[in-house]
Amino acid sequence: MATSPATDVPVFKLYGETQHWPTPDLLHCESIPERSRLHDWRIPPHRHADLVHLLHVSTGDVALELEGSTRQLQGPLVIVVPAMSIHGFRFSPDIRGHIITLARPLVERLDDRLAEQAATLTSAAAHPLGEGRETARLATLVAQIDDEYRHPATGRDHLLEALIQALTVEIARLADRDPQLGSRPLPRRRDRAREHLQNYLALIEGQFRQQPGIEQFASQLGMTSAHLNMLCRRLAGRSALQLLHERILLEAKRQLTYTNMTISQVADTLGFSEPAYFTRFFKRLTGHSPRDFRLRQHTTEAPESDAPGQAR
Question: Is the overall model pTM greater than 0.70, yes or no?
Answer without folding.
Answer: yes
